[in-house]
């Protein structure tokens, strides 16, 4: 879950000496605290301990007090829009669960937060996210105001904003919030720990080496998430810090894990010139609505970021040839922002339908007649004929719609002489086929069928 921590040091493991060098980590401080009695300001998000109800201490510098007031106002506004957050928080894990957590190891950290992995006393593991007291955001604040505790409190409001969003936004593409704990009993200090679903960092280099079907799944999941964000209960939401590192994989599914920089407000404007959407290589003019908001700016910002960080890398490579024109249309339309998220989702669902149904295979020559089928046998597993990308690094294991498609694939490979359709299936329900350079090593298997090229079997005794 180091991606959730932000920008650096994925998978980092801190020694005891390194941890002592970071005494301001609120997470580690919280874990060292005993469970606090009621009324002392510790809780799972409800009751007297609500952090947004406390005023900044008078001893803080005026500038810092004003920043704290602004973040508190923003948090209250978000809580009012979200509604029901306190009940949701109270039903989850709390400070007692946190104090009993064991096997805590830091996974990574970024500008604002640190993320650790922990084992719960009742079983299971969670990601613990808290303010990074030695992070860049707190350090810069301390340089300006010279008030470490107040600066950590300022950063804590970002984490509280994220917790509030996660309480309200429920979607398979958003990491789950299991609970929270905060201590508001100090003078200027506000310690917050969020307990989240644990994931693994999204590694783009590894994704590029996976079969096209798995990469398409990632892109489709992202499109469904952006559709939800565009029509969320809180209005259209923009992920301002949209990067692959803000996502994790949980049980093979893509999920966004950093929401503290999300915006539920669309840009205010007086005229169309106020609504230019700028990226490093492109700019897009948008319209200023009669309500004084830049129309669709959050949706379009998310969509173009999905195009430049995900679609361009994951969609086209090694895609089925018949689907490439449709994928090219998606890339062009999202890259030019001619599509909105509604049109993009429809285009993805069309590709998925063609792929799952096998309709993209129409008007192809029938090649299975060139193969002999042997029922009740399978080939011996092991290293041999290889292809890329494959579901197995030891051989050539590919997703197919039917034995007919497998025959076409085998014909296109120089050293392929046989294949077997396995019982394993992908997320689309398509079977996996294993392609071999030989067919001589056969073992009995009542559930299997081996297909052998007639040219490869000529002169051989079957």
What is shown here, in short?
The protein has helices at 2-5, 16-20, 26-32, 62-82, 85-90, 95-99, 136-145, 148-168, 204-208, 212-230, 297-314, 324-335, 341-357, 403-412, 454-457, and strands at 42-43, 102-109, 113-119, 125-131, 177-183, 191-196, 200-201, 238-239, 247-250, 253-256, 262-263, 276-278, 283-285, 371-379, 396-399, 418-425, 431-436, 442-453. The protein has 462 residues and is α+β, with helices and mostly antiparallel strands.
The chain-level mean pLDDT equals 83
Taken as a percent bin, the fraction of beta residues is 15-25%
Mind summarizing the main beta sheet? 6 strands, antiparallel
Number of DSSP helices?
15
**Strand line-up in the sheet with most strands:** 1-5-6-4-3-2
Fraction in helix: 25-40%
Low-confidence stretches: 1-42, 44-49, 85-90
* Form type: globular
Distance between the termini: 53 Å
Radius of gyration: 27 Å
Number of strand segments: 18
Secondary-structure-derived class: alpha+beta
